[in-house]
Amino acid sequence: MNHNPIDQSPAFNHLQESLVSLTRDLVLIPSAEANPKERERGLEVIKYHLESLDQINLQEFRPNGIPSLLALPKGIRTPDILLCGHVDVVSHPDLSIYRSTITNGRIYGPGAGDMKGALAVMLELFREAHSQYNGLSLGLVVTSDEETGGYSGIRYLVNEIGLRCGVVLIPDGGSLTEIIVEEKGLIHLRLDCKGHEAHAARPWLGVNPLQQITEVIVKLQKLFESYKTSKNHWHPTCAVTQIHTPNKTINCIPAEASCVFDIRFPFPHSVDAILDDIKELLNKSMNLNIIICAEPTQFEPDPIFLNAVEQVTSSKPALCHSHGGSDGRFFSYNDIPVIISRPLVGNLHTENEWIDIESMESLYKIYSIYVKDKLKL
Ligand SMILES: [Zn+2]
After folding, report:
1. Rounded to the nearest whole angstrom, what is the distance from the C-alpha of residue 116 to the centroid of ligand 1?
2. Do 190 and 273 sit in the same domain of this protein?
3. Ligand 1 centroid from CA 363, angstroms
4. Which of 259, 294, 329 is a domain's end point?
5. 20 CA to middle of ligand 1, Å?
6. Are 138 and 21 in a shared domain?
7. Which of 118, 165, 187, 302 has the highest count of CB atoms within 10 angstroms of its CB?
8. Centroid of ligand 1 to alpha carbon of 342 (angstroms)
9. Shared-domain flag, residues 286 and 315
10. Contact 100, 22 (CB under 8 A)
């Protein structure tokens, strides 16, 4: 009897081998916000992978010290199709977990699903397509701050450098046959509250900001209850994620406190309308600070892409909502069509994150058919 956890999946074909080995090389690099040097190293590996293509211009950008890489065919500033990915992953304090294993046809490892496996698909496809066709209007951009808002990555490239394209493919949401057509908007909010310090034995002499903050949290819960309209949580939500006070003393009422909220909301809600409702609940001792905000987005599905999905998977793609946001919003705000779908993934943002290897090959085939059909090759 064999007790070893041997991989029962069939041997990998040549394409799967390349996708697996590139994904595993990328998983080894702990390219999180907490490790800026590793983020650079992640982009170096990608650059190295693309350098042999002499018909491609590689440009690097580094606003606020955050690197990104843009690969465009020589002589083309606005590609008809742009592949878009990010090399950053969420931070795990223990760097020794940035390893991968292969079990049951899946690659397990931090960042495998979001989105180093999908990045490997794009890199292989980009290389193969450009070796096959000269002057192909296909670009690739890889950033390193998607997990922290995309402000120095895609926002910078689109809004400040003027990056444009006919359509952008972002394998960072949905699934193989689930195409994202709507993403929630986002507000990260900090509420600062001033009170009046006092000894905790004489609370009537103080004004307790922690108490005021907890009262606001209850009011906010009621407000967000009132937004509830649908099943599947497709309505605004609000999560308290941090409560702070500088106070370290048990018997002291602090002079100040703050708390942080993560708010998500779909159309037709907007940043301004939600903030107006929240401001109604605050008193004069409270100050509202917006950390980041983004309006919700809606994407039009491209029938050529839906057709490619159906050809490869033999099933009709579903058009889906996403509770999270993506870098897609920066393109969408500039009226650039965005297509979001990805291989089968799971346990995202944990050390047991996984990506299914066959579905990586399927996405490769979908992208490859789409590029040929869209560019009429
Ligand atoms: Zn991602």
Report:
1. 9
2. yes
3. 16
4. 294
5. 18
6. yes
7. 118
8. 10
9. no
10. no
